[in-house]
Amino acid sequence: MAVMASAPTSAPSTPSVPLSALRVVSLPEQELVDHLSARVPGFRCVLWDMAGDPVGARADEIDVAVAPVAGPWIEALPAATRLRLVQLQTTGFDGVPEAVGPGLAISSAGWVHAAGTAELALGLILAAQRELDRAVLQQHDGVWRRFATRSLADSRVLVLGVGEIGSAVVDRLLPFEVEVTRVASRARTDERGPVHGADELPGLLPDTDVLVLALPASPATDGLVDARVLSLLPDDALVVNVGRGRVVDTPALTEEVVSGRLRCALDVVEPEPLPGDHPLFRAPGAVLTPHTGGSCTSYRPRVRRLLRTQLERIAAGERPLFLQQEGRLDVPAPGNR
To answer: Which of 337, 334, 315 is nearest to 326 (CA)?
Structure first.
């Protein structure tokens, strides 16, 4: 049972494009144009929000396009006939390779949103365990009533997914005196110790108080947390999802939460948004946030740092970070210059 994204797609059998040929870079905001133009010489940075026409170059002159965070930007790609690399500002890239085709290279945002999303994961866990939602409702009603709650300390937390976000979640959990178990697609040992394989989940879930999902969307992860997986969790366990909503079978989770057997704290859901009359909105034991993991002040300085790093790597002939599809780029193999 795989739980991680597939390996980067190799270049198709067509003439390759050297990294040295990538010199015209479009950016969706003027602030990014100004920031990078002053810091990365050798590149021509132009403004293109991928909704109108580029400013400072023609679309058919652009080699690298930084996509806006939202909007139908893929529709603008046919005009960029010279384009070789699309840099995303999102960690997730599901659906992008299929939409742009195999000829374009695609890089995701990697660690840009890891800190913000991990902070939210920790906040959701604390809110659910210490029933902060209950306290806020009492506050709105002008009620001062003490109550006892669960704690995060001494909890057994299973983090499913050990990529940038999952690792950042673990970083923030460890000071809270919890027992952390990490699970990925295959068992291995890294600098932090053992990582369990997904095939071990049935034996790990019954001893889990908090299940944190930090997985990308992929054919391997869609519906991974289904009714069978949820049934293996002990009563009163908390399911936290900060990855992709499609990883969880929403009807199965809803049934468990509405019945009172499990609890949930979700930043992502399927479908998104949930309809206003969905039972999870009013279910005791459910805490929902509207996909706000990366929507915080850490985003902008980190995306500037990533974009500068990417252009510096391209200038040095190094493989771009978080390359999910190589397209026609002639790039070094992972780990090589």
So the answer is: 334
